[in-house]
Design goal:
This protein has 25 helices and 23 strands. The chain is α/β, with parallel strands linked by helices. A six-stranded parallel beta sheet has the order 5-4-6-7-9-8. A six-stranded parallel beta sheet has the order 14-13-12-15-16-17, sandwiched between helices. A six-stranded parallel beta sheet has the order 19-18-20-21-23-22, with helices on both faces. It is globular. The structure holds thiamine diphosphate and magnesium ion.
Length: about 625
């Protein structure tokens, strides 16, 4: 019976956890990210010091390290992740946003926030939230709604029951997300005689579950009857490594495919039955077919409002859904015929049940011709040459064509995700890494680091806006410290291109979305409330802020290349290939030139009453579109 501290037991246990799928066994948690403080340094910190075979990585920000862990897990198809250790109070709480990002995206991360003393006699300790109503409360309770498993270890022996539950949830494709074990700082250092068996090597077999046979037969019948079937491929296709099975299925049946944000890469971009992005940020090809489809086959998708265009994208009066998903919760969405099972296993069984069944020839032909039409549109946008500043569309084309085709592109928030969803040409299943479940500004660079750690042989291209960069760029330092090279393309348009455009489309002139001085400056708070204001998009004389993001990146240790034209950006991408550490390509881009939308919408409610005419006009337009939203019962 080894006598270990609770923290030592956590580390000894984690080292012995493995996953297995399709015969491939690997460590579930190959490393630990962390920032030490009084709440973990003497507990988990001490345990890591005496167990150097579980590698510890220093990070710069607790939110960022959770993003890095989630991106690592995503790149490894959720079969591996990292643990994250923090102190108590702010260090712990900084992880909440990261936890939600992981949970929303169904990505496993193991969070080990320090917690206040279980023994209580010295309370309130530094950074403790006090409550006059309960002593059983700390800031770590904020993790409950954003975790798929949450526990607090108030006695060392509770670990024996908690750790296996934590691993079960982390390795479960249907339940996975953030797993939080709050570790009171005194208990971390307390010893107990743990049962030897707790530290035996344990393999978590990740199942390829199969759907109910009767449901499969019903789905096959629906597919035989369908006149205009469309597949919506989500992240589950990629996590399940079902992309080859999907391609065979599509070729056997002639059914076209639209891809969600997480599902992009399910089929190569140049497959004639790949219609590309579907939904609010979709292509003219996918969205036109979606409007007419009578059967939607969702595979591994959670049907976010971007995918359904706020429930307006599927408009056939009798449209029905068959949903293949490991999670019954997702499989049942839109009153679907649920096929609860692994994407690859279910596609194989469905293909066997459908022998020789094909979508009507005219529908498949229409799809292939729309595919060509869309490819021409991408070409048009890639070929634009904005002046004086390059457009975002042409820069996306540049990275796509001149970046390494085996590389990975990482992005999360701003105007880039929508444009990338439409325009990025995906050549392998892991090339398009978008965090768009939470669209969390700040994920980009931290996430890029996780991708690079998961797959060091690939070039990683992080596309990030100036707003996201300003929010959380500091993991550049970690990338330099650990020798994980990122090529960060920083698209600087001096503010929020995305929300600026959204604001204009809602009749609000881009209010509060530019990085520019208020006018007049220093009007004072009392007087200023009425007289000074931030310049909106109508102000042509707005004074830009003296912010130098290139210098900022250089100060963090990155190799920086500054560009203001297409040609300079092309040269920078080439030059970046020869640099062995993190490169930031700082490109100034046009704030207004946008990529159009195609037969789609996104519901952002507009003020019902307002003193501004343009808002009233936008409200009328909104009401018209709102009426098109469907329940899919
Ligand atoms: C953490 C967080 N805060 C706020 C938002 C809302 N938001 C979405 S995009 C955006 C602006 C992003 O600016 P930038 O990174 O410069 O990209 P751009 O819009 O200019 O392309 C904001 C504030 C968000 N997605 N995440
Ligand atoms: Mg910007």
């Amino acid at each position: 019976m080894p006598r270990l501290t609770m923290a030592q037991a956590v580390i000894a246990f984690l080292k012995q956890q493995y996953t297995e799928r399709d015969g491939l066994e690997q460590r579930l948690i190959p490393g630990v990210f962390g920032i030490f403080g009084h709440g973990n340094v003497a507990g988990i910190g001490q345990a890591l010091l005496q167990a150097p075979d579980l590698r510890y990585y220093q990070t710069r920000n607790e939110q960022a390290m959770v993003h890095t862990a989630a991106a690592f897990a995503k790149q490894r198809n959720r079969l591996q992740t990292m643990a994250c250790t923090t102190s108590i109070g702010p260090g712990a709480l900084n992880m909440v946003t990261g936890a939600a990002t992981a949970t929303v995206n169904r990505l496993p991360v193991l969070l080990l926030p320090g917690d206040i003393f279980a023994r209580r006699n010295v309370a309130p300790v530094l950074q403790q939230l006090e409550s006059e109503h309960s002593q059983d409360l700390s800031v770590n309770d904020c993790f409950r709604p954003v975790s798929r498993y949450w526990d607090r270890i108030n006695r060392p022996d509770q670990l024996v029951m908690a750790l296996p539950e934590a691993m079960r949830v982390l390795t479960s494709p249907e339940e996975t997300g953030a797993v939080t074990l709050a570790l009171p700082q005194d208990v971390q250092a307390e010893a107990w005689e743990y049962p030897e068996e707790l530290f035996a090597r344990r393999v978590w077999h990740v199942a390829r579950s199969r759907p109910d046979v009767a449901a499969l037969q019903r789905a096959a019948a629906w597919m035989r009857a369908a006149q205009r079937p469309l597949i919506v491929a989500g992240g589950g296709v990629i996590y399940s490594e079902a992309t080859d099975a999907l391609r065979r299925f599509v070729e056997d049946t002639g059914i076209p495919v639209g891809e969600t944000m997480a599902g992009k890469g399910s089929l190569r971009y140049d497959h004639p039955l790949n219609m590309g992005a579907v939904g609010a940020t979709g292509t003219l090809a996918a969205n036109q077919l979606a409007l007419e489809a009578d059967l939607v086959i969702g595979i591994g998708t959670r049907y976010s409002d971007f995918t359904t265009a706020s429930k307006t994208q599927f408009q056939d009066a009798g449209v029905r859904f068959v949903n293949i998903n490991v999670a019954a919760f997702d499989a049942h969405k839109h009153h679907a015929l649920p096929l609860v099972g692994d994407a690859r296993a279910t596609l194989e069984e469905l293909a066997a049940a459908l022998q020789g069944v094909r979508a009507p020839e005219s529908w498949s032909l229409r799809a292939t011709s729309l595919h060509s039409e869309w490819e021409a549109e991408v070409e048009r946008i890639y070929s634009l040459r904005g002046a004086p500043l390059p457009t975002q569309g042409e820069l996306i084309g540049l990275v796509n064509e001149q970046g390494d085709g085996e590389g990975v592109m990482v992005c999360a928030a701003g105007s880039l995700p929508g444009d990338l969803h439409k325009l990025w040409r995906t050549r392998h299943p892991k090339q398009y890494h978008l965090e768009y479940g939470f669209s969390c500004m700040g994920y980009e660079i931290a996430g890029g680091l996780g991708v690079k750690m998961a797959d060091p042989a690939r070039e990683v291209y992080v596309l990030v806006g100036d707003g996201s960069y300003l929010m959380l760029a500091n993991e550049i330092v970690t990338s330099i410290q650990e020798g994980y090279k990122l090529t960060i393309v920083l698209l600087d348009n001096r503010g929020y291109k995305s929300i600026g455009a959204l604001s204009r489309s809602l009749g609000m002139q881009g209010f509060g979305t530019r990085y520019a001085y208020p006018q007049p400056l220093n009007a004072g708070l009392d007087a200023g409330a009425a007289t000074a204001s931030l310049p909106d998009d109508r102000a042509t004389d707005a004074a830009p802020l003296p912010v130098d993001l290139a210098m900022n990146a250089r100060s963090l240790g990155a190799h920086v290349i500054e560009c203001a034209s297409h040609a300079e950006a092309a040269a920078a991408l080439q030059a970046a290939k020869a640099i062995d550490h993190t490169v930031v390509i700082h490109v100034q881009t046009d704030r207004y030139a946008g990529v159009p939308g195609y037969f789609s919408w996104w519901d952002v409610p507009v003020a019902e009453v307002s003193t501004i005419d343009t808002v009233q006009a936008a409200r009328e337009e909104w009401e018209e579109m709102r009426a098109k939203e469907r329940y899919y019962l």
